[in-house]
Write a structure and sequence with these properties.
It contains seven helices and 20 strands. With 383 residues, it is of the alpha+beta class. The strands form four sheets. It has an eight-stranded mixed β-sheet with strand order 6-7-5-15-16-17-14-18, sandwiched between helices. Helix 1 runs parallel beside helix 5, helix 1 crosses helix 7 and helix 2 crosses helix 5.
Length: 383
Amino acid sequence: MIVGVRADHRCLVVGGGLLGLCAASALAQRGWSVEVLEAGPAIGHACAGSKGDARIFRLGYPEGTYVDMAMRAAERWRRLEEATGRALLVPTGQLSLGDRSSLTAVAAALAAHQVHYEEWSAREARERFPSIACRGPVLFEPSSGVLVADECLRALCDVGRFSVRAGVVVTGIHDDADTARVRTARGEELRADIVVDCAGPAALDLLPGATAAGGAGVPGPSVPQVAYFRAGAAEELPPVFIEWGEDMVYGLPVPGGDRLYKVSHHTPGPLLPSYDPTDTWTVPDDPTLLATLRHAVGRLLPSLDPEPVRTERCVYDNTADTHFVLDRRGNVVVGCGTSGHGFKFGPVLGEMLADLAEGRVPSVDVSRFRLDRPERLRPPQAR
């Protein structure tokens, strides 16, 4: 049943990560009664995919759809800053380097959307940013920067006219004729007009038959390696960079006064055997992946100490083609598969999920995000 906009309509959002909070905020602003059920002990807990201090915000994608979505998201992050007084999007600029065909595709997509960028030689890049040792052509995006991730989650809770229940483990979601039901590990059965399933790596497992009947090929969460490096007291922190290529190494300055720089690789890491947000799981550092990051710092970031001061593993909620899952089945809306690049789009993705909940056609074409798309079986691609 497709529902309309009514103040007495109730929505349960399963998952209090970025996607769930953005969907809850968008629906609450439209007059819905919204409750968020978070399995972990708190929003942004240590095992959450949305945890942490910094995420890249960039406009540069080789696909125009993502450029458009990033432009929309930038406006909405700024509005959230104004509404909360929190600093969320810190401009730093971004250098894209590496594979030339990827740079050409990014430049073409930016140009098609009239986004300003500059093409530099390696020498021009080194003169402007001596903290990065560029060795080939460079694409510079002045509008890109860093999202203060934990502050973004707090800001969404600040303005949200929704409630959050932490420590509620959902074990199943069922679509009925007129409503949807949520079952919890406590034995509760909760009903709502619409359930929005944003449970990250567990999202499709909660829906009977979702993976068997044309699921989006979500292979399970992967855990890329992350390391933090420190700049010397007199050294300049590098801006954001992405090195397009097989490893797709990226880096970003961490907001704050610790002069830290975060480096990781934007390709799927090894799969996590199991994911339980209620458990304090730990994954040890991967020596091979960590060596890749150290080598990248040595090659590209002369202003940083090549020995990391901190390491961690992050969680990627993957799809096989790295596109998101945004779809509706009966009275259940699904949002998952953000594949490590969804944070920047949060407010836009939340509005798209809210549109699906209301039976509206989203302002962004969601065909590539369908749960049953055939591309689900293609090998993972760097994004």
